[in-house]
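User: I'm new to structure prediction. If I give you an amino acid sequence, what do you actually give back? Let's try with this one:
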Amino acid sequence: MKRWPMRPLGELVMPTEQRDPREMPGAEFAYVDIASVDNRAKVILPAKRIVGRDAPSRARKVVRAGDILVAMVRPSLNAVALVPASLDDQICSTGFAVLRPGPQLAGGYLFAFVRSPEFISHLIARAVGANYPAVTDGDVRSARVPLPPLAEQERIVRLLDEAEGLRRLCAQADRRLDALFQSMLCRAFNGEL
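Assistant: Good question. You get back a string of structure tokens that encode the predicted 3D arrangement of the chain. For your 193 residues, that looks like this:
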């Protein structure tokens, strides 16, 4: 089994910026809050469109296409998502850690890592609060990432994408088989089989 060097995530991601949308009261922007992330599908749902004057105080973090958002509240839910091009230069809540892959880290590899049991366990172990457990940006960035060469990271991402595609096909087949079985049951008990 190959052992790659382990590096703190904070050393592998780029700095991100913040801006206060209230400084441009009439400008409209897309706002991604915690409720905007589907923690099962790992995607951002349609973001809210608001104007600067109506921006919540937590609307501060600028996101770029390819950034990865990690919700810092209720880390066991693993509300993570990849920022699509349609949300480039928009704003998300300070309730997210915004991870921008640096030159040593493939975006797909980082996105796979933040969905891994090891990363989730790392955050759960650091969560504070019983009713509303949360971690800090520093907790997220302190996670240690195995760092294979970029070519190997890309190969891993291709394999994971292929496995995800197969998983989706299996789920689709299960739904179709269930529908067929239910239809056959109805036909059988109506004397049509």
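You can read the tokens as a compact description of the fold. Here is one thing that stands out. Helices lie at 107-113, 117-126, 137-141, 150-189.
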